[in-house]
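Risk mitigation, structural track. In case the binding assays with P-hydroxybenzoic acid fail to produce interpretable data, a predicted complex structure has been prepared as a fallback.
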Amino acid sequence: MRTQVGIIGAGPAGLMLSHLLHLQGIESVVLESRSQEYIEQRVRAGVLEKGTADLMIESGVGARLQREGLIHHGIELRFGGAGHRIDFADLTGGKSITVYAQHEVIKDLVAARAAAGGKIFFEAEAVSVHDLDTQPKIRFQHGGATETLDCDFIAGCDGFHGICRNAIPPEVLRIHERVYPFAWLGILAKVKPASDELIYTYHDRGFSLLSMRSPEISRLYLQCDPDENIAEWSDDRIWTELRTRMATRDGWMLADGPILQKGITPMRSFVAEPMRHGKMFLLGDAAHIVPPTGAKGLNLAVADVRVLTRSLLDFYRHGATSGLDHYSDTCLRRVWKVQRFSWWMTSMLHRFPNEDSFQHHLHLAELDYVTSSRAQATALAENYVGLPFDEPYS
Ligand code: FAS
Ligand code: PHB
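Fallback model:
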């Protein structure tokens, strides 16, 4: 089997890349180890930056997003029993975010690829990559057989636990990492969201976040120990803890309801450099992980896709390799700015083990400053809605 771009992974990175390449007449094959049903139900991110939402709409996969996505013009930071709104529209000249679940993005992209006759092989596990400097090959298992995909380029969109990052020789690969001493316990609940916008809360007992998926479905998170056993968190215990952490002096109430799904997500900051080796390119979680406090994971994956799409277009249309040669440096400039923002949001809003009174007051001072200084609120807002892109993807 042969194609121009062999894509490993059908997450946001792999599917968006396949879709954008197709629009430019560049052929690809996507290999995905899981089933279509699994990836279309996997509950993950929920917030699209304006650039991500615009890209979906401009590239023809945004119709449902425009119907069902919830456009938000701000968020609330809550601490000391009081809420403080960060007004994106005022601070960023009208930019917004869209709340639209990652698995809905996946459904839209899978449907678009199917309608265009795109090749996505589900339950096809890539086991190894070869000849990255000459004629790249991907060996994969599919339907009980071992097959080979010959391609011009490999796009490693296989997430944090994939095989592509580790195909870069250890003497070449550089890892930068911070593992946080806490995790997020997340729930999906069948209850009307208690707020129209997201609420991020700093509390003595730890961080909590109110988000949503629709006018009927709430998505909430609370900070917990990284080795928590989810079986020890009954629905009542979860709701009680969320109500305690989100309480305000004016008696705001968090309504509860049936919990449809609960899980624990570890927290790390991670960057692998370089994001290219020979004719293999890493995109998204295969190259970088951010703590979800800044709502950046999916959006940063899409930013990598924009850079690689443009670079491959320049190569196939004009024989130019400059984009490909600078792919890693171009992506990493944004990656590190997003890492900084996600680390800053996480450090500001979470209680760290064994904090002393000085550190506790630093949290409060940081929150007081960002909610009373237009300059600092603007810095938060312009990062949250998404930093501008350096150039168009096509
Ligand atoms: P993905 O991990 O989404 O996709 C990689 C794909 O490759 C997967 O489908 C996998 O099955 C496949 N794959 C792996 N190895 C393979 C192989 N050998 N062969 C074939 N296929 C292979 N981000 C946010 O912004 N907000 C959040 O709230 C948030 N919550 C998260 C919760 C969890 C539990 C996790 C794990 C991540 C969360 N993220 C969140 C981050 C998440 O949204 C990622 O940033 C996003 O999925 C990145 O997309 P991809 O890079 O495409 O990787
Ligand atoms: C979500 O809705 O899942 C979500 C929103 C904002 C975040 C993280 C997750 O920072």
